[in-house]
Amino acid sequence: METSLTWLGRLTGDPTEGDWKQLLVVYGPLLRAWLARAGVPFADHDDLSQEVLVTLVREVSGFEHRGPGAFRAWLRTILHNRIRDYFRARANRAVAVGGSDAWNRLDELSEPDSALSKLWDREYDEQLAARTLERVRVDFSQTTWEAFTRQVIEGRPALDVAKELGISRNATLVAKSRVLSRIRAELAGLVE
Q: Which residues, in sequence order, are bridge partners of residue 3?
């Protein structure tokens, strides 16, 4: 998924409270998870996440979209730099405390083809998808949501889903279409 240039454009001017909240909802959990993976103490997660997002807003006007994945790579670099600075400021601590050996090679996060960067990309997409599904879930009945998830998430045929839910095949297809349409609308300002 690609981050919308329209949404990024709103961040360059005078971001609204809604834009800031959207940053926190979409990227906060991802950033905190990576900070934990890096060995940053839990008590510092919120402050360091906010530092990353403040840097993003402050520097977004200089962001150059150079194709698919450009924003996520840029955000990954900001995160890497803030983590590196965090541990440099605490020079008497190890770069990673426990956790994965990957964090003993923290600089790999800034290398686009490294395993660590690929893990970031996957988790970035998963985070964006999960937050979007959470936001749109409340807009639908249980049956509509079940029809959607069984077809789209589980990859089951519409006819099988219709029989299981006791609705017509057409109703399952309409449910799928309605939820997908709502997801697209939710992502319209966030991904391109």
A: 191
